[in-house]
Design a protein that fits this description.
It is a single chain. The chain is of the alpha/beta class. The chain folds into four domains: 31-238 and 607-618, no CATH class; 240-352 and 566-594, Beta Complex (Endonuclease - Pi-scei, Chain A, domain 1), CATH 2.170.16; 365-552, Endonuclease I-creI, CATH 3.10.28; 775-830, no CATH class. The chain is built from 21 helices and 52 strands. The strands form eleven sheets. Strands 7, 8, 11, 12, 38, 39, 41, 42, 44, 45, 47, 49 and 51 form a 13-stranded mixed beta sheet that branches. Strands 14, 17, 18, 19, 20, 21, 22, 33 and 34 form a nine-stranded antiparallel beta sheet that branches. Strand 30 and strand 31 (530-534) form a beta hairpin. Helix 12 (365-377) runs parallel beside helix 16 (466-480) and helix 18 packs across helix 19 (790-801). The longest helix is centred in the N-terminal third of the chain and has 16 residues, at 48-63. 49% of the residues are buried. The model is unreliable at 1-25, 107-136, 206-213 and 596-604 (pLDDT under 50).
């Protein structure tokens, strides 16, 4: 399970620091009192035991002092009487986004979360102010007995289960802020995973606070029964799958940060981050109407699509024929991201038309027409005897070829100023046009390359205005194409270059034509009585006068039906990329697929959450958080887990925002061979204090724990590691390792380490390491000597410092961490 409270960086206030006009069903008065607590409980129609639980917690909160070991100057600024403890934004929780009030949906839209992104998540909860306004879970998880609800609904639907576990891991008297949460909690998540069930798809929660002086006090309870697990699997593509760059298609594993690809609008976008991970499971192969555009991806990876069932015509389908679509409905439908595993044959996927256009006056119509002939029929070499560059155009000898021969000779004269030579080639029964010209040879090589199987267009040609590209396409089809008439005109072209075939498909799309690509495998063949070995041929078909048919044009994209879809087992690496701007979706074999997810940013607040995890024997829970609350938020939370025999609990915790964070995820290892792990990072800038750490309590023998804490401070920020390793006398053969690393960016910043080790058993293995370092001048000099700017070099060092944390994250969180670090580092140099 993951909470994901992502907030706005101070440099982005204008873009993200907005709020909607407050609309609510109920808003409690400012301040905390018995009446406010009873109002909250009454509004929620809670059972008597929960009301009593809240009131007991309120008494504890009022009596307990503020923690003396936290920053007293910052804590003293909290005015508990100036906070709204409960605001109900809507009358009921939405089961679909259409049921969510418009102003709340507007907030998520402004925050950069398209509705389509929210729809593809397997299980998602969205909390706005004090209440969960939307919640959904996939039906297949429900069938397995998985419960994923808002905490309030969990209490109503599973009162006995909640009563059995609620507050048992973190009692209401645990600390002042746990008492506060226990008194006024609202929202959060309740998850129960039955015995033996493996949850391998995202369960995510988003939090947003809109009202000024609003506090958020969500409560999360996760119970993983025996042998079950809860963790994340992000969507990705396997090695070898190709991504459109606007120039050519590249294997996804070879794409590097900073390179440019096409996004789902057909526009250029830079790659912000790339990720890879091992994967074992099914891959989905989607074959649209164009066999060579098939692509593979993991089942949960979202694909931009329109479901056929949503746009079908009233007429029934016959036999194996797919039902007809209503064209008006199809063109009016809004494509949305759908998990690949849920798509079916006949659904429509989106082929965006490349939009980047840059004119170049050097490319006149004669030049482009001559390059079209070269692309289809040309070759170039240096004559061995004469040692002179030669460009040759080879045509047939029929009457239909004569106009093309004459035009080629005229174009050569116009472009080079030289007279071309026409030669009858008796061996091939054809006609050759040749010219000795270094400038023309250079022009052809620079723009089109050489070799039938390796020709491809350069970036300039791919970005010329479509009306200019039309001349290149016309003469190319004169050479390598043919036309024939059926019910409509069909144009066929073939090339031995796979790269060129895909480029031609994109150029034709810019002309308003969707072309299919099919493969004619090479092999032995006989032409005119001669035995030859034919190379693979890529055949392109399109119809210039057919406006209907199976493919539809919608705006700047084609809607292409899926011809086939299948699942195959796969084990190996999978990859994904993140773009630097919305829409964060790229093109796999020309079709739009999503990066996976995007962050939600929240406004200012007191945030005091409680998270309780219970891992029963042989269960596995991983809980991931990246928080970047805005810089005047007090982020004071309590997170703790109970790990029974042979169970595993992992906390992955990233802290980049807030004015003060106090967070120490804990694992109480109460069963033999239980294992706990905390990997955390903290980034403290000006005016920030990240007081974070971890606690491992070993109560049973043969238990093990690992704590890895990393912090970075700049501009006078402060980071503190505060940790505990406790081993009770009966806990023999315990292993525990603690490592704390701090990186200081300047002289004004500060890092503190407060480790506590209480070891009461004799047979144990305990290790602790702590380091504090600075960005070295030698490191900067080395990176800058390789062409990096100083700011880029520093950011690279910081990302490398956080690598141990980032590689453990699901993809969407890893790329989000990289983005947030980059934002935090802006302005840190110079």
């Amino acid at each position: 399970m993951s909470d994901k409270p992502i907030s706005v960086n101070e440099n982005y206030d204008q873009q993200y620091g907005f709020h909607e006009q407050e609309k609510y069903v109920f808003k409690a008065k400012k301040g905390l009192s018995k009446k406010v607590v009873e109002e909250i409980s009454g509004m929620k129609e809670e059972p008597d035991w929960m009301r009593a639980f809240r009131l007991k917690a309120l008494e504890a909160f009022l009596k307990k002092p503020l923690p003396g070991w936290l920053d007293p100057e910052l804590l003293s600024q909290i005015n508990f009487e100036n906070i709204y403890y409960y605001l109900k934004p809507t009358e009921k929780q939405g089961k679909t986004w259409e049921e969510v009030p418009e102003e709340i949906k507007n907030t998520f839209d402004k925050l950069g979360i398209p509705e389509a992104e929210r729809k593809f998540l397997a299980g998602v909860s969205a909390q706005y102010e004090s209440e969960v306004v939307y919640h959904s879970i996939h039906a297949d998880l429900e069938k397995q007995g998985v419960v994923f609800l808002g905490m309030d609904d969990g209490l109503k639907k599973y009162p006995e289960l909640v009563k059995r576990y609620f507050g048992t891991v973190i009692p209401p008297l645990d600390n002042k802020f746990a008492s506060l949460n226990s008194a006024v909690w609202s929202g959060g998540s309740f998850i129960y995973v039955p015995k033996g069930v493996q949850v391998a798809i995202p369960l995510q929660a988003y939090f947003r606070i809109n009202a000024q002086n609003m506090g958020q006090f969500e409560r999360t309870l996760i119970i993983a029964d025996e042998g079950s697990s809860v963790h994340y699997i992000e969507g990705c593509l396997p090695a070898g799958e190709q991504v459109s760059t606007g120039l050519r298609w590249m294997n996804i594993e070879s794409i590097q940060t900073g390179e440019t690809v096409l996004n789902s609008d057909g526009e250029e976008a830079a790659v912000r981050a790339t990720r890879a991970r091992p994967y074992r499971g099914d891959l989905i192969t989607i074959e649209p109407l164009s066999g060579e555009n098939r692509f593979r991806l993991t089942p949960e990876h979202p694909v931009l699509a329109i479901r056929r069932e949503e746009v079908r015509a009233p007429r029934k389908s016959r036999g194996k024929w797919l039902g007809e679509v209503n064209t008006a409905k199809l063109l009016a439908a809004e494509p949305r991201f759908v998990e690949a595993g849920k798509l079916c044959r006949g659904d429509f996927v989106v082929f965006p038309i490349p939009q980047t256009t840059r004119d170049d006056s050097r490319y006149t119509i004669p030049v482009l027409r001559l390059l079209g002939f070269y692309l289809a029929e040309g070759s170039t070499f240096v004559h061995r005897t004469l040692r002179m560059p030669v460009v040759v155009f080879s045509f047939g000898s029929g009457d239909s070829d004569r106009p093309h021969v004459e035009e080629t000779k005229r174009l050569i004269q116009e472009v080079t100023g030289k007279r071309a030579i026409e030669v009858a080639n008796r061996k091939n029964h054809g006609t050759s046009v040749l010219v000795y010209s270094q400038p023309l040879r250079d022009l052809c090589l620079e723009n089109c390359g050489k070799g039938a199987a390796t020709k491809e267009l350069n970036k300039t040609l791919m970005e010329l205005p479509p009306e200019k590209q039309a001349h290149l396409l016309e003469t190319y089809h004169f050479g390598d194409g043919s036309r024939y008439q059926r019910a409509h005109t069909m144009v066929r072209a073939s090339t031995a270059s796979k790269a060129l075939a895909r480029q031609l498909q994109e150029l034709l799309a810019r002309q308003g034509h969707y072309a299919t690509i099919s493969l004619r495998p090479g092999g032995p063949d006989i032409i005119l009585g001669r035995r030859i070995t034919r190379k693979d041929q890529y055949i392109l078909y399109h119809s210039p006068d057919r406006r209907m048919g199976e493919v539809r044009r919608r705006g700047n994209a084609f809607l292409v039906p899926i011809k086939g879809i299948r699942r195959d087992p796969y084990e190996g690496p999978v990859f994904n990329i993140e773009l630097n701007r919305a829409p964060n979706a790229y093109l796999a074999s020309g079709f739009a697929v999503h990066n996976c997810t995007a962050p939600v940013y929240a406004s200012d607040s007191l945030h005091s959450a409680v998270v309780e995890l219970i891992a029963l024997p042989h269960a596995h829970i991983r809980y991931t958080t990246i928080q970047n609350w805005s810089k005047n938020v007090y982020n004071l939370v309590t997170k703790r887990a109970i790990a029974h025999e042979n169970s595993i609990v992992e906390w992955l915790d990233g802290n980049l925002g807030s004015k003060l964070t106090a967070k120490y995820p804990a694992v109480h290892l109460v069963g033999r061979k239980a294992r706990g792990e905390v990997v955390s990072v903290a980034f403290a800038g000006a005016g920030q204090h990240q007081d974070a750490g971890a606690k491992m309590v070993h109560s049973a023998p043969e238990t093990s724990s690992t704590i890895l804490s990393k912090s970075i401070c700049k501009d006078g920020g402060r980071a503190s590691y505060r940790g505990l390793v406790k081993v009770y006398p009966q806990a023999e053969n315990v292993k525990s390792s603690v490592r704390c690393d701090a990186l200081l960016m300047d002289e004004r910043s500060r890092s503190d380490t407060y480790p506590t080790m209480e070891i009461d058993a004799k047979k144990v293995s305990i290790g602790h390491e702590a380091t504090v370092s600075k960005v070295g001048e030698e490191q900067l000099f080395y990176l800058m000597s390789r062409g990096l700017k100083e700011s880029e070099a520093v950011t690279m060092i910081v990302n490398g410092f956080f690598e141990a944390f980032a590689k453990e994250l699901p993809l969407e969180y890893a790329v989000e961490l990289n983005r947030l670090v980059q934002l935090e580092m802006e302005g840190s140099v110079g």
